[in-house]
Amino acid sequence: MRLAHDSHLAYCTNIHRGEDWKETFAGLERYTLEVRQQVCPADSPYAIGLRLSAKAAKELSDPTTLLQFQRWLEKHNCYVFTINGFPYGSFHDTRVKEQVYAPDWQTTERLHYTNQLFEILAQLLPSGVSGSVSTVPCSFKDFIDNSAQVDAIRKNLISCVDHIAKLSERHGCDLHLGLEPEPLGFLETTEEALNFFETIHRAAPNSDLIRQHLGINYDTCHMAIQYEEPRVSLNLLRAHDIRLSKLHLSSALKVKPTPTVQTRLADFIDTVYLHQVVARSSDGNLTRYTDLDQALDSARDQTEADEEWRIHFHVPLHTKPDGELRTTKDHLLGVLDALAEDPSMCSHLEFETYTWEVLPAAMKTPNVVSQLTAEYDWCLNALAERGLNQYSIPE
């Protein structure tokens, strides 16, 4: 939905199954319209954070199909301002794990897919609204073992930026791509992001285009897992003139891994998604585990328990900690506080708790619509406390 300071809030439709356009559109009709009815006045435009797989994007690119979708958006007073281009292929009910990063930015497949997403977005954007696409943090760390691979990543990203710039000029709009740092991604910390942008500026023929069209998709769950302080991270990105393309509003699990808690964490292991763990010892050292089951296995052999674990498991925003299982909501609130002080920092806000299907029963609401409406309520209340959620209906 359209908010104060010309900002936009949506939930990401990656929470719904959508491996082709037919299934994606069915989710919009079945769930998104019901959520819209509950959270947004009928006479206010309702924003959609669209997730498109490569297959769905190819199918939606058909001119007739795209025109039909544009008419559907107009009929229901909806608009698309952002697309999640992180998962290329299947994302539900199958093993995703580290394959969510593939194909990565070494490949022309990722380049062509992302270019196609921007071609779709440029045609869907309302006049005067900027458009963002979020993408993988270049690659997964374990996929990269030589400098030639990193050179290929930079080359493809520079090519994509050139394509985005030409589309922006042709359509008279502002389009930007956000690399999304994530635990064990090629980019996972603010420092790694700063270093990478420094190298891509040196490699690019036009640094101004990089500044305008390539930035960071700042996921508050991912950055909290790294034990980063929101103001420090945000200030560093801005001091280095790196665009904040989008803010993902999300929370991770945060626990003291006692034997009792470790038993409870077994409920969060699943065969679909990676749940990376960053453990902090009493002396402040960080240890990273690729998945939760590995962290639990390692803990059984430790003589001294870690002080804290932060776990990449997206927890619904309205979930209240129960004492043993806490969340990183404090990081999210710190980001919103910074945004309230300078709303120009970022105009794209999206929440994405895609873990709906694998949530433990105790955390689940009766259905996905009730979860989404509860998360909207939480977001709008948090924004209201900071003067950021007033509706702004365009002329």
Automatic annotation (TrEMBL):
Superkingdom per UniProt: Bacteria
Matches recorded under InterPro entries: Xyl_isomerase-like_sf
Name of the protein in its database record: Metabolite traffic protein EboE
Species of the source: Rubellicoccus peritrichatus
